[in-house]
Amino acid sequence: MGKKKGKGPAKAGGAAAAPVAATREELIAAALAPLSQTVSEEELEVAREVVLDELPKLRSAQSLSEALSSTLDDVGVDAGEHLEDITALMRKFRLGLANPIVTVDTTAGSFKCELFLDTMPVSASNFLDLVGTGFYDGLHVHRIVPEFMVQLGCPHTADPKTTTAGEGAPAPGSKFTVKGVDGIDLDPPRVVVRGVDGDEAGCIPDEHTEKISNSIGTLAMANNDAPNTGGSQFFINLSDNPELDWWTPGDSRHPVFGKVVGDGVDVIAKMGKVPTDEDERPSKPIKIKRIALD
After folding, report:
1. How far apart are CA 83 and CA 80, in angstroms?
2. How far apart are the C-alpha atoms of 65 and 80, rounded to whole Å?
3. Which residues pair with 36 in a beta bridge?
4. Which parts of the chain register pLDDT below 50?
5. Is the link from the previous residue into 205 a cis peptide, with omega within 30 of 0?
6. Nearest-CA neighbor of 79 among 50, 117, 109?
7. Half-sphere exposure for 256 (CA within 13 Å, toward CB)
8. What is the pLDDT of residue 269?
9. Contact 236, 268 (CB under 8 A)
10. Within its chain, how far is the Cα of 145 from the centroid?
11. Residue 250: what pLDDT?
12. pLDDT at residue number 51
């Protein structure tokens, strides 16, 4: 069964948006807090140096806390009882590293998006892989529903008048590598193979892990209202749409993997008000000139 036309969320009739990353200093202080009552100042400074050394090559919260535990063991400090607390704090503070930013340059204006590589690594890495190959460049916005969402990313929309908008996806069986929060491949590497046939052709596994709501300005995976049918297409929420969250009742389950930042929210708001035809396409085509990693 092929992809149905109009692939994307259906408008009906919350949870909190992604947390804000801590500064590096706040991160280190929080991670070391569980140790401060049981180790000397000298040992605490050793731990701090480990954190500073490990952050640039960080793969995960667990890898950092294990490195910290190992180093403290070397100086005679047992951090085992604190390891779980440290790991939880690292996750809470989103690892203290900045998520990647991309610039989307369109004929209706430019805007920047943060990709949640820290909390949604598969979906964000899929998007980054497509950006890196120029997949989105030259495509067109193919669906706008005022006060609901703007949808784009279908490869068929290189022709803005195509009758198959919403049915396309990346190449079936194509691969990408999941990135860590520092933009470096995970260790060991994690390779995702996009679906080969049926509705899942060219699509990735649903990343139903983090409860990040479809709030205004967020980017979410478009799909066929069926499992594992999100590929290259995504939409930007023009309002808060909690009914699209993957953990809520109903068939519409759209994981969020990024958000528009800065003045880009104004660009998207204006885009959401442009005239459309009977198929919800912009009457005047809106072309994606380029999406690039900052």
Report:
1. 5
2. 10
3. none
4. 1-6, 14-22, 58-60, 93-96
5. no
6. 50
7. 29
8. 97
9. yes
10. 22
11. 84
12. 64
pLDDT at 86: 60
Q: Answer left, alpha or beta for residue 182, where phi above 0 means left and psi between -120 and 50 means alpha.
A: alpha
Instruction: Count CB atoms within 10 A of the CB of residue 171.
Output: 12
CA-to-CA distance for 150 and 190, rounded, in angstroms? 31
Q: What DSSP element (H or E) covers 267?
A: helix 264-271
Question: H or E element: which one contains 24?
Answer: helix 24-32
Calpha distance 198→68 (Å, rounded): 46
What's the number of CA atoms in the CB half-sphere (13 Å) around residue 125? 26
pTM for the predicted model, two decimal places: 0.73
Number of H helices, E strands in the chain: 6, 10
How many whole angstroms separate alpha carbon 3 and alpha carbon 77? 57
Contact yes or no for 118/96 (Cβ under 8 A):
no
- Which secondary-structure segment (H or E) carries 105? strand 101-106
Q: Which of 290, 268, 270, 276 is nearest to 139 (CA)?
A: 290
CA atoms within 13 A on the CB side of 244: 30
251, burial (CB in 10 Å: exposed 0-12, middle 13-18, buried 19+)? exposed
290 has which bridge partners?
105
Locus of tokens 């790991």: 87
Joined tokens for residue 230:
């999100």
The CA-to-CA distance between both ends of the chain, in Å, stands at 38
Based on the number of CB atoms within 10 Å of its own CB, is 6 exposed (0-12), middle (13-18) or buried (19 or more)? middle
Q: How far apart are CA 3 and CA 223, in angstroms?
A: 9
pLDDT of residue 22: 47
- Contact in structure between 17 and 213 (CB atoms under 8 Å): yes
143 residue type, one letter: R
